[in-house]
Amino acid sequence: MDQQFLFPLDGDNNPTYQILPRVFNEFFYNGERYVFLIGNNRQRYICLLMVDGNEIKLYGDEWGRFIEDNVPPHVTTLHFVKEAETTFYVTGYTDFGVEGPGYERRDVGNRLSRCLVRCTHGGQILPGDFLQNIWKSVFKIYANGLRFRVNHERVQLNMESVVRSNRLFGNGWERLVTDLEIADGQLMVFTNLGDNKLNLALFFNNGRCMHEEVVLPTMLRIPPRAIAPYAIQDKRAKHICCWKGHNSHNNENDVFYVELDGTVTEFYHLTVPTDYCEDHLMHTYGKALLVHNHQMVTFNVKVIRDRSRPGRINHVKLTGNWRKFGERCGFNHPKMMRFKLINTIGQIVEGEEIQVAVFHVC
């Protein structure tokens, strides 16, 4: 699954528009009208897409505001990381490979900071700001499911400057280059995971990332920015995942959205969208197990039939104490909840087996 891509920032036409690379057209574009972009300020921007011949452009007021708020003048390369369907975390790098405004580890999991470099033989130099004042002699580097122990040292490349850089070298580094078949000059992005650990992502010359890696969601700021008028009916625009480290956002398969509000909590039931019920045969389930982080709560599945039309299933409701569920999960009302079906299990109740739908709820 494609997750990441790099491309040059168009300094001439931004913030009016930005042409996206062919990689986006071929591996990420599904015909959507807009994409959700998350900046270093942990705010979400719903940016319009324009198909112009063979090109796809980001444009409009939201894109202009994203550039203004998140991309300083010295950034020349943008890095898109797919966090969910049509949702990208975006950072950028200077000509020296130094990342623009960073992301604090407590807010976005393991993505503490990144740098962009090209592979060099005889050891790898990293920008001086990437590992400031780190004198650890050995780092563990994770790449494509492999782990390497690599020697590290601080070096002073310019004797007239007090700025130091970081150099990776030794047998461990040479084995990494050989095992991953890294070419001289190949684009690489290092992520500082903390605890003397680095993640390495490799990129083709067209900006496409070569390997998958674990991508954790960015915890968005609350309250969020106002929703653009063209996305006001999109329930995804109203949803904010508050489950730190939740990694079930790679697609929207088997997903529905419902708002937790006063009606749901007062009447102890939540109505599942009709189209979802029909596609997923919700009437065949007896219970639903809802999971949020470490919380697991069971709700009953109640089928409401239209007596005027025998055999037609009109509604399926999840019944239980929704107020208590919201409190246990830390949801503020109203809260747009995202339900993703992740499993079906069997359970014996009073001697009979029933089917239980297991949902991640965030």
From TrEMBL:
Main localization of the protein described in the UniProt heading: nucleus
Transcription as UniProt keyword: yes
Gene Ontology molecular function, alphabetical: DNA binding
Entry keywords, A to Z: DNA-binding, Nucleus, Transcription, Transcription regulation
Gene Ontology annotations for the cellular component aspect, listed alphabetically: nucleus
Keyword Nucleus carried by entry: yes
InterPro entries cross-referenced by the UniProt entry: DNA-bd_pseudobarrel_sf
Domain of life: Eukaryota
Organism: Artemisia annua (Sweet wormwood)
Subcellular location: Nucleus
Segments forming a coiled coil: none
Name of the protein described by the UniProt record: DNA-binding pseudobarrel domain-containing protein
